[in-house]
Specification:
Blueprint: H1 12-16, H2 19-39, H3 50-66, H4 74-77, H5 84-103, H6 114-134, H7 138-146, H8 150-175
Helix pairs in contact: 3-5, 7-8
Protein name: YeeE/YedE thiosulfate transporter family protein
Keywords: Membrane, Transmembrane, Transmembrane helix
InterPro entries: Sulf_transp_TsuA/YedE
Length: about 180
């Protein structure tokens, strides 16, 4: 039996692009990593969070350089894990994103004017501030909602409104 030209051999990459398979792989990996973190003494609500880990990385470096005592999450303050977990996650995300973009030939430098760089930078700073005020990542937000925290409910509403506004702005820019 000869395969049609439209039927190609499915590689691992094509299976991972399927939502069910990709979600199952990511879920299993996240559960495994969380189990390892919890076994190392980490709290259950400290998963992967760019806001928390960036804060811990910056605070750890600042504390190391100046001898101050800025806040670190309990897991990051652990002498065995201090500085290692936040550094590895944030740097790992950056290296992984660049490697994936290079591998799939999607890496390109976006050129813009000074105003676009300033707006993008201010947006990133505001995102981090609001994420840390809300209580950090959506995973922790879901846990807090489960415990009946009303601030987390308002945080979820703010996320939904922010996504809606962002989509509207992006669609307006695409039409122009």
């Amino acid at each position: 039996m000869v395969a049609n030209s439209s039927e190609e051999k499915k590689g691992l990459d094509s299976y991972l692009k399927m939502p069910l398979v990709g979600g199952a792989v990511i879920g299993f990996a996240a559960a495994l990593i969380q189990a390892l973190l919890f076994a190392a003494g980490g709290p259950q609500a400290y998963g992967f969070c760019v806001a928390c880990h960036s804060r811990d990385l910056i605070n750890y470096v600042y504390n190391s350089l100046t001898g101050s005592n800025l806040f670190l999450a309990p897991f990051s303050a652990n002498p065995v894990a201090a500085g290692t977990l936040p550094v590895l996650t944030i740097i790992g995300v950056l290296i992984g994103a660049v490697a994936a973009a290079l591998l799939y030939k999607e890496f390109r430098v976006k050129k813009g004017d000074a105003k676009s760089y300033v707006v993008y930078g201010i947006g990133g700073i505001l995102f981090m501030i609001f994420a840390l005020c809300m209580g950090a990542c959506p995973y922790r937000l879901a846990l807090r909602i489960g415990y009946g925290d009303l601030v987390a409910v308002f945080g979820l509403i703010a996320i939904i409104v922010g996504i809606y506004i962002g989509i509207k702005i992006a669609l307006k820019r695409m039409e122009a």
